């Protein structure tokens, strides 16, 4: 288990990559954008992008309105 900074809070996770993290959190892929250490990661790279201890991960949902 590793500890990451998730949306501003320290959180222990088991996931080894972004796709696994979304599954662990119960977040549906394609409904959010993910930034790893302040860099957005393309959806196509979620399973190839590892998560390491002390990484900062932000998950944001698109806003609608105008």
TrEMBL record:
This is Sulfur carrier protein ThiS. PANTHER family: SULFUR CARRIER PROTEIN THIS (PTHR34472:SF1). It comes from Fluctibacter corallii. Pfam families: ThiS. Gene3D superfamilies: 3.10.20.30. InterPro entries: Beta-grasp_dom_sf, Mopterin_synth/thiamin_S_b, Thi_S, ThiS/MoaD-like. CDD domains: Ubl_ThiS (cd00565). Transmembrane segments: none annotated. The gene is thiS.
């Amino acid at each position: 288990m590793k500890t990451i900074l998730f949306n501003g809070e320290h959180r222990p996770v088991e996931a080894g990559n972004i796709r696994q993290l979304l599954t662990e959190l119960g977040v549906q892929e394609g409904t959010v954008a993910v930034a790893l250490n302040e860099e957005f990661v393309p959806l196509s790279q979620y399973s190839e992008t590892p998560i390491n201890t002390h990484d900062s991960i932000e998950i944001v949902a698109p806003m609608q309105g105008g």
